[in-house]
Known about the structure:
Blueprint: E1 25-27, E2 33-35, H1 36-45, E3 64-65, H2 67-79, H3 97-106, H4 110-126, H5 128-136, H6 139-158, H7 166-169, H8 177-187, H9 192-199, H10 204-215, H11 219-235, H12 247-259, H13 263-276, H14 280-288, H15 291-301, H16 305-318, H17 322-330, H18 334-340, H19 347-363, H20 367-375, H21 378-387, H22 392-404, H23 406-409, H24 417-420
Antiparallel strand pairs: 1-2, 1-3
Amino acid sequence: MSDLKSVEVPPFFVCPISLEIMKDPVTLHTGITYDRDSIEKWLYTKKNNTCPVTKQVLLDVELTPNHTVRRLIQSWCTLNPTCGVERVPTPRAPISKTQILKLLKDLKTPSLQMKSLKRLKTLVLESETNKKSMEAAGAVEYLTYVLNNHNHNNNSSMTASSVGDESELAEFELVTPSDEAVGILYHMHISQATLQGLLAKNNEFVETLTRVLQHAVNYETRTYAVMLLKSMFDAAQPMQVASSLKHEFFVELVNVLNDQISHKATKATLKLLINVCLSGRNRIRAAEASAVPTLIDILLDSSDKRLLEMVLLALDQLCQCAEGRSELLKHGAGLAVVSKKIFRVSPVASDRALRIVYSVAKYSGNDAVVAEMLQIGVVGKLCLVLQVDCGSKMKEKAIEILKMHARVWSNSPCIPHNLISSYPS
């Protein structure tokens, strides 16, 4: 509107949200008309359930095209071209359920599959309404079929005695049906109810996405797959956090962290790992999949505050099992880098690092470990905790650790002279 020259825009042409001339006016049951793009973002992206103008709770979010207002806007634009007004094009009508179902059924016909996937991808990126319509039409089930079918074919081809010559390799598609299907599922922004339903089906969809991670060569596809997994477990009820996840699931999460395919994928994987490791059995599986040394390497290499906080939270969970503590102690820099992060990142990180030290000292504190904690400066750092302003809970935990092994540590010359006075009696 700022580009218009000396022309008064009728107020009912303006969207109450964007304050711009509406291109595709739609009306809520409250009687207020908005531009489709703006109200869809308000309802679906920002997760609001009220009418922005009336503040009424929306029990029905059907968006009815306001053809009268749209025609009036187009006529007005046509009459004012000299004032910098461009004609608003007639918006494309949202795709019908019948059209969506036809595209979904085509996914099961090999010759039509890629064409249908590309059309569905265009639709899902076009509008929030299309996303909701696709989900309502059962797109998740059809796209899962594509993933399972394509992964099965991949597995079958990999059992052949040889891959073949370069001419055979050239026949592989750069973008596979699996790549397209995962991208569509990610961009659909699947509802929480549907995600919970997927997780309730004996981890079938989790296993499907695990196979995608195993076979995908496209980094974007792997990112989408791990983001979908994160969304599923974010939506899970407490009782739904599966304790029966397979070893391969954790191996693929570790591979994503090791490959550093993207910052977004790394953070999503860490959040996912933290979520599923609420279960003790999953902690053991994660430790057996070499999650601990991978997390330690991130601690050594990264300076991202939020990333380090998540890594320490994940390590804290893993060190609550013997397998996790064993892996931490096997790593040459494990205990040292954890203690170094106390007071170096944030209060949250300091608290988590101290909890890790506590788990090691209490449950794995044999003679060799106790001696190592002294030599690498962990004991000195615990004494420092008692001298600074860091909250009573951290001090209490530090005192408890120091008292556990006071017989070995209290009179050691390894503790810096200025910290010896802090050692609890």
